[in-house]
Specification:
Elements (H helix, E strand, L loop, with lengths): L1 H36 L2 H17 L6 H14 L19 H35 L7 H19 L1 H9 L3 H25 L3 H23 L10 H29 L1 H6 L5 H37 L3 H36 L9 H24 L8 H21 L6
Helix pairs in contact: 1-7, 1-11, 2-11, 3-4, 3-6, 3-9, 3-11, 4-5, 5-8, 6-8, 7-8, 9-14, 11-12, 11-13, 12-13
Length: about 425
């Protein structure tokens, strides 16, 4: 049995690294293409779109990882949902009734969240972009609406991802991500070569989101068996999951304020060139983060299962190996990226400049601290306990305060 688990893990890790590696490689090709093809202002606006997308993820409010984790527990045979930890195991056979209830709950919840997101993002987005230094025309307004539609579709069909990942279908999950990424990049290079517009990029992004959700739906179709859920049962599940999801959500808000809100605040005071530079550097470090986190992300469902079955030592072994691999990979890729990026941008005659080495090293250190914290956070929640909520909220509040202070009071710009 142990050999089978190791073999499956090895195969899953290989697929995870293949998907992340191809995504990383395609981004190395696609990002320079964009910054050479689109104008500085269009790139600045694109990075603001990405910032708005990060803001939209806050509406998940922690239900995504909580539902995914409980799908894993239901598949492992737990008898019921509990606010913290997990209930008594019923013999490691799937609890199909509980799994079906979770699917129905997530489907109804995320449809509601999608409509709520639509009602909030349109007026808030309008007010925000009115106060930036960006110039707008009808084409850019359409680009905003297309990007908003991509966000809404992503939320509406998000439960497919929860099921595929929660059931540890790592290969199918990564195949879907890889295929959607390759479609996005290949179509982007082909179409934007003839129609170099921000609107074109947003339409292609929308198509890639639809394609990814379609593939996730196909991967989940055999296990997607939601049942009719009464309003009373919906409320019961909501109450049980909200205990941990609210802590996840508050942590997400704290993390967003700590590391993601800067680009949105900067959009109100910095030039398009500075926003593009800051956004490009953050995007490169984001790719490094995702690639270095792939091993732990792949093994997290298995760690949850091992803890659920009482195999604490095996869960610790999986985490230790993932942590060492992730830290070494992050530092190597981060330093290599900072070393090569300026020369590469000069070589392709980029419209976007790279920030100074001092600023990059400072940002790399900050991002590494976030990454290392994230590794331990992923492990801590595998047993359905979230002990770090207050720390992230305090950090987020401090980050907003100092960002505002340095940008609006001391006018330090990118520094």
């Amino acid at each position: 049995m142990l050999n089978v688990i190791k073999k499956n893990l090895s195969r899953d890790v290989s697929w995870a690294y293949m998907a992340q590696g191809m995504g990383f490689l395609s981004s190395i090709i696609f990002i320079p293409f964009l910054i050479r093809t689109l104008s500085n202002e269009e790139m600045g606006l694109w990075y603001l779109f990405l910032g708005v997308s990060g803001f939209a993820t806050l509406f998940d409010f922690g239900f995504g990882p909580t539902i995914t984790r409980n799908i894993t527990y239901a598949d492992s045979g737990v008898r019921e949902i509990v606010p913290q930890g997990y209930s008594e195991n019923a013999g490691a056979e799937r609890n199909q009734k509980l799994l079906s209830e979770l699917l129905s709950f997530s489907q109804n919840l995320y449809r509601f969240v999608s409509m709520l997101l639509l009602l909030i993002l349109i007026p808030v987005g309008y007010l925000y972009f009115q106060n930036t230094q960006m110039s707008f025309n009808l084409e850019k307004v359409f680009a905003c609406l297309v990007y908003l539609l991509a966000i809404l579709i992503s939320f509406w069909f998000q439960p497919f991802n929860f099921l595929v990942l929660g059931l540890k279908k790592i290969r199918e999950y990564n195949v879907a991500l890889l295929a959607a990424k390759m479609m996005y990049v290949s179509m982007g290079i082909l179409v934007i070569s003839f129609f170099p517009r921000l609107l074109t990029l947003c339409i292609i992004y929308l198509m890639s989101v639809v394609f990814e959700r379609l593939l996730m739906g196909l991967a989940a179709r055999d296990d997607w068996k939601p049942i009719s859920l009464s309003w009373q049962r919906f409320q019961e599940i909501l109450k049980l999951l909200f205990y941990n999801s609210s802590r996840h959500g508050l942590c997400a808000i704290g993390s967003f304020f700590s590391f993601r809100v800067n680009i949105l605040i900067a959009g109100a005071v910095l030039s398009a060139g500075d926003i593009s530079s800051f956004g490009l550097t953050n995007q490169v470090l984001g790719l490094v983060n995702v690639f270095s986190m792939a091993l732990l992300t792949t093994k997290a469902p298995q760690m949850s299962r091992e803890l659920c079955l009482g195999n604490t030592k095996e869960a610790m072994r999986l985490f230790s190996y993932s942590w060492v691999s992730g830290v070494v990979m992050y530092l190597l890729l981060g330093l290599l990226g900072g070393l090569l990026a300026p020369y590469f941008l000069d070589f392709i005659h980029s419209n976007v400049f790279w920030m100074s080495s001092t600023l990059y090293l400072f940002l790399l250190l900050t991002s590494f601290l976030e990454f290392n914290t994230g590794l331990f956070m992923v492990f801590m929640v595998t047993d359905n306990h979230i002990p770090y909520t207050k720390a992230l909220i305090l950090t987020g509040g401090a980050s907003i305060f100092f960002t505002y202070l340095f940008l609006f009071v001391f006018h330090l710009g990118l520094l």
